[in-house]
C-alpha cells in the first residue's frame, strides 16, 4: 500500500488538532489518547485506491518556528489551515506556499488550503472568496470545513491524497521525458 | 518581654527604613513566630494588634500599596506592649492546644511508652539501608592470540570494609521552682568495624579444565563507650550485646524506659523540665573489586571498580514536661546517604576535570496525617541527586545522594506515599459504558450569574447561610461523584459536579491520594485558583468551627490542600484578589488563635511572591564589554555545551505545569510566560547558529564553524540535553544551510548526528526526523528517568505540548448529558486523568537538575543570542553562496 506523509500547518488555535482528531478517529470521540502508538496513521481509500496517511501535526508546537523546516522537509503533502473566524490566522499563512516550495526545492508540491471552523459563520472574518483567491495564486485546491461538525473533513484529506498522486505521477512523467531527451 | 520578641521587634524596626519588601516580610514572619512561641495567644487584644500590624505590612509589601511607615511603627509598638502584658502562662497547657477529652486522657497516661515511639519509629523508617554486595560487570576479555597452549590466570579480588558508628546523647534539664536547674547528660557511642576479603584465582590452560582457588578473610570488631554527667538517677546497666543493640534501634528503648522511670521517681517536682535526645549515626561501607587476567605471565587486562556507601543520620527530639505531663514535643533531623561508584583502570586514576552531569531530584512533602491528634504534624523534604562523571571510555564515576530533612511536632509520624502504579491501568479504560451514576444529583450553579470571582475577606464571620444546599459544607461528597464501575466494583473518579470534585479532594475518607494529586495538577481546567481557594477557605472555616473529630480532620485536610495550592500557584495567578483572600484568611487564623497554620500559610505565600523571575539573571551578565570581542573558538566546545545546558535548565525549571495546560487550551503568552521564554530561547539559539555559519565569508570558515557546532552537539548529547541539541540540529539541517555544498567530513558528521538523534529516541518532537516511529513516550520517559539510568531526558516540551493539545481537542470538558441521567455540567474527569498522566511525566523530569555554574564570560559572548539575522536573510545569503536552480519569479 502506498504511504504518504502529510504535514498540517497553520497558526495556533485554528483547530489543526481537532481536524486531525476528527479525521483519524472519524467520530468526535469521547475518549482520546494521543499517547498510544499509531494514533496518527489512518488508512484512506481514494478513487478506489487504498493508501495510508501519516499525519504530522504541528499543533501545540507552532511556537517552535525553527523546527518548521524539519517538519516541511519530512512531509510529502501539506494541508495549510486557517480559521475563517480570524483574519490574523489567514494573514499568517500567506507566505506558507513560498516557504514550502523553498524548502522542498520544487514548485510541484502537493498543497491544500483549508479554512476551518465554518460552523461559526456568524463570526466569520475571512470571506470564502479571499480563501479562493489565495488558493488560485498558489494554484492549489481550496475547501472550507468544520472539524467540530465533521463537515468536509474526510473530503479534505482525500483531496490531498489526490494532489499527491497527481504530483507524483507528473514528476515521474517528467523524469521519463528528460531521460528520453 | 521575652528576649526573642524584643529582638525581632527591634530588627523589624531597623529593616523598615531599608524599604526592602523581602526583608520586611521575613522579619515579620520571625516576629509572628516569636509571639506565638512566647505569648499567651488567646489574648484578644494581642491578636487584634498583630492582625492590624500584618494588615499594614501586607498592604505595603504584598500588594505594593502606599502606606505610612509611622503607622507600621505604631502598630509594632502596640504589639510590643501587649506581648509584655500577656506572657505565655506557664501553668496552663500550651494555648494552641484546644481542650478536648483526648488531651486530658493523655495527661493521665504514664509518660514513657507512646511518646518514646515517636522518634524511634521515625528512625526505624529511615533505618540504615542494607548495602548490597557490589558486583560490577567487567568486559569479558577476549584472548586474541591464536596460541592455544598458554596458561591463562584470572584473579578476582573483593574487599569489603564496613564502619558504623552511633552516638546517642540524652539530656534532661529540670527547672526547679526555686530557679535551680538540674542537668543530666548521657552520651553513648558505639563503633563497629568489619572487613572481609575474597580472592578468587582461576587458572586455565589449553588441555586442562578451569581451576579456581578461593581465599577468604574476615575480621570484625566493635567498641562501646558510655559517659554520664551529673546523673541524678538510674543506673546505666547495659543490656545484651551492644552490637545487637546497634543493629536495631528500638532495642534501645528498654534502657530509656528505665531512665524515664528514674525521672518519674521524683513526682513531686512542680517545675518544668525538658528532655532532649540526639542521635547521630554514621555508616560507611567501601567495596573494591578488581580483576586481573594474565596469560603466561603477560598481563592481558586489568579492571578495578570501587563503591563507597555512606550514610549519616541526625535526629533530635525535645520534650517539654510540666510536672509529669508532656505538654510539647518537637523534633527535627536529617538523613543523608550517598553512594559513589568508580570504575577505572588502576594507575590512570588521576584525570583532568571530567565533564559532569548533575541531576538533582527535589521533592516536597507536606505532612498529611490521618490521626486525630491536635496540632500534630510531620513535615519533610527529600532531595536526591545523581551525578555521573565521565572522562573517557574506561573511567567513570557515579554519585548518588539522598537527603531527607524533617521536623515533627507532638505525636504524629505518619508519612504519605503516592501510588502511581495504578495510574497507567486507570488510563487504559476506553469507554463510558461502565459509569456508576451518582446517588444524588445537585443542580449545579449553572452560569446564571456570570460573575468573576473576587477576593473575599475571610476575617468577617459568614453573614448568612446559603439558601441552596452547599456541597462545600458536607463531610462527604462521595454520593455526588460519578465513578467508573466494573463488575460491581467501584473504580476511580470519572467526573461530577465541580464542588463535589473539590470536596472529594479534601475529604479524608473514601478518597485516594492519586485522585488528590490529579485534582491539584488539573483543577485549572475547570476552576480558577482564586475561586478554588475561596471555596476551600469557606470549607475550612466551616469545618474548623465544628466540634466533632471528623470535621476537624476534614478541616486539616482542607488546609493542607490550600497550602499545596499556594505552594504551586503561578505568578500569573498571584493577583490582588488572590493575595487579599489569602492574607485575610491568615488574619482570620490568627484571630482564631491558630498561629501555627497562619504562619505556615503566610510563609508559603511569601515564598511564592518572592519567587518572581527575571530572565536577565540567566541570559545577562554584569561584565563590561571585553576589549576584543570573543569568538566561538575562544571557548571549548564542552564549556559552551555546559552553558547552553545551564541556560536551558534555568528556563526549564521555571515552567509550571499550569502553563503547559493553559497553553494547550488558549495559547496565551501572558499566562504561559515561562514557557514562551523557553521556546524563544530554543528558536533564538537555532537562528544564532544559522547566522554564525552562514555569515562566514569563506567555505573553509563555514566548515570550521559547522564542525565546532557538531562538537558542541556531541557534548550536549553526553549531558542528555536534547533540547539545545535539537535546536542546533534544526539549524544545521535547515534548508538554507543543508542545500550548500559541504565537505565529506561534515556530511559524515551530520549523518552521525542524525543517526544519534534517532537512536537515542529523541522525545522532543514527533515526526520531525526520518524513520521515526511513535512510541509510548510517557513510558519511555519514565524508564529513562530512573536515577540508575544515565540517560536523562532533560526536556521534552514539544511532545508534551502536542499531547496536551490533542487531549484537549479530543475529549469533551463535561460528560455528555445523556450519559448521566441528563445532569448538566458534570466535569469529565477522565480528560483530567489524561492530562495528569502527561504532566506527571514532566513533573518527574523536572526533578532532575544539572549542577552547572554560570560562566559569565561565555554567557556574555552569547549576548542573549540576539545577534542573528532573520530567516529571509539566511535564504538570501544561502542563495548568494549557491545560486538557486529555481526561477525566482514566485515571490508573492
UniProtKB/TrEMBL annotation, chain A:
Its main location: membrane. GO terms for biological process: Rap protein signal transduction. InterPro entries: P-loop_NTPase, Rap2, Small_GTP-bd, Small_GTPase, Small_GTPase_Ras-type. It comes from the Eukaryota. Signal peptide: none annotated. Its EC number is 3.6.5.2. It is found in: Recycling endosome membrane. One of its GO terms (molecular function) is GTP binding. It catalyses: GTP + H2O = GDP + phosphate + H(+). GO terms for cellular component: recycling endosome membrane. SUPFAM superfamilies: P-loop containing nucleoside triphosphate hydrolases (SSF52540). The keyword Glycoprotein does not apply. The keyword Protease does not apply. It is a lipid-anchor. PROSITE patterns: RAB (PS51419), RAS (PS51421), RHO (PS51420). Keywords: Endosome, GTP-binding, Hydrolase, Lipoprotein, Membrane, Methylation, Nucleotide-binding, Palmitate, Prenylation. Belongs to the small GTPase superfamily. Ras family. NCBIfam families: small_GTP (TIGR00231). This is small monomeric GTPase. It comes from Caenorhabditis latens.
Automatic annotation (TrEMBL), chain B:
One of its GO terms (biological process) is Ras protein signal transduction. SUPFAM superfamilies: Ras GEF. InterPro entries: Ras-like_GEF, Ras-like_Gua-exchang_fac_N, Ras_GEF_dom_sf, RASGEF_cat_dom, RASGEF_cat_dom_sf. Residues 154-166, 241-259, 277-299 have a biased composition (Basic and acidic residues). Residues 636-884 form the Ras-GEF domain. GO terms for molecular function: guanyl-nucleotide exchange factor activity. One of its GO terms (cellular component) is plasma membrane. Residues 137-166, 221-299 are annotated as: Disordered. It holds the Pfam family RasGEF_N. Residues 489-613 form the N-terminal Ras-GEF domain. Keywords: Guanine-nucleotide releasing factor. This is Ras-GEF domain-containing protein. It comes from Caenorhabditis remanei.
